[in-house]
Design the sequence.
C-alpha cells in the first residue's frame, strides 16, 4: 500500500482483532472480496419476546438479507459499531454464511459462541463479545452499501485482507496496483523459504 501511495489508507483499528490464530498453518489468514452489511440499534420494543415475535424479527427487521449476495471468495464485513449487546454473529449462522462461499468475516459489532467458532476454524476478526439476540436490539439497515469498520471505509468489491497483525482494506480500483507492488516482497519471502528448506540458492550469482 505504501509503494503505490496509499500510506495509512485502509488500516482498520487494531481493536478489531483475530478471534483465534493458527501458528502452525496460518489458517486464520484470509483474503476476500467485501460484501457489506450494516446493523443499527432499533427504537422498537416488544411487550414479550416469544418464539413467534423472535421469528418475525429475524425474517423482517433484523434479517440476514446479505446471504443472497454471498459468493465463493466473499469476505463479509459487518458494521455494527453501535448495536450494543447484540450478538449479530453466532456459530450457527456463520456456518451457513460459510456454506454460501464466505471465506472470513470482519465486524465492528458483537460476536457470540466463540468456543464453537474457534473449533470450526472460521476466520473471524471482531471488536467485542456480546450476549443478546438481535431481535429487539438491532435492525438490518443496508446490504452492499459503503460501511465504516474500524475507522475505515469499506465498499462492496474492495479487497479485505486479515492476519494476526490486523485487517487492511484495499480500494478495489487500486487492487491490481497493490498486488503488483506486493509481488517482489512475496518473491523474496518465497526465495528465503526455498533456501531455508532446501539449503540451495539457485539465485546466487
Sequence:
Amino acid at each position: 500500500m505504501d509503494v503505490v501511495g496509499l500510506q495509512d489508507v485502509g488500516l482498520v483499528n487494531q481493536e478489531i482483532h483475530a478471534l483465534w490464530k493458527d501458528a502452525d498453518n496460518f489458517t486464520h489468514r484470509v483474503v476476500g472480496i467485501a460484501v457489506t452489511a450494516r446493523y443499527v440499534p432499533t427504537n422498537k420494543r416488544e411487550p414479550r419476546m416469544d418464539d413467534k415475535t423472535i421469528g418475525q424479527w429475524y425474517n423482517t427487521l433484523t434479517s440476514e438479507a446479505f446471504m443472497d449476495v454471498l459468493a465463493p471468495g466473499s469476505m463479509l464485513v459487518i458494521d455494527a459499531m453501535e448495536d450494543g449487546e447484540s450478538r449479530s454473529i453466532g456459530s450457527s449462522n456463520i456456518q451457513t454464511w460459510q456454506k454460501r462461499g464466505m471465506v472470513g468475516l470482519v465486524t465492528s459489532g458483537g460476536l457470540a459462541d466463540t468456543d464453537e467458532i474457534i473449533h470450526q476454524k472460521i476466520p473471524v476478526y471482531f471488536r467485542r463479545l456480546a450476549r443478546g439476540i438481535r431481535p429487539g436490539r438491532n435492525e438490518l439497515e443496508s446490504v452492499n452499501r459503503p460501511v465504516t469498520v474500524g475507522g475505515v471505509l469499506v465498499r462492496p468489491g474492495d479487497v479485505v485482507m486479515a492476519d494476526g497483525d490486523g485487517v487492511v482494506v484495499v480500494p478495489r480500483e487500486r487492487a491490481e496496483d497493490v498486488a503488483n507492488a506486493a509481488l517482489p516482497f512475496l518473491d523474496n519471502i518465497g526465495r528465503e523459504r526455498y533456501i531455508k528448506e532446501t539449503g540451495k540458492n539457485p539465485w546466487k550469482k
In short: DSSP finds four helices and twelve strands in the chain. Residues 175-198 form the longest helix (24 residues). The chain has a mean pLDDT of 93. The chain has two domains: 17-170, 172-205.
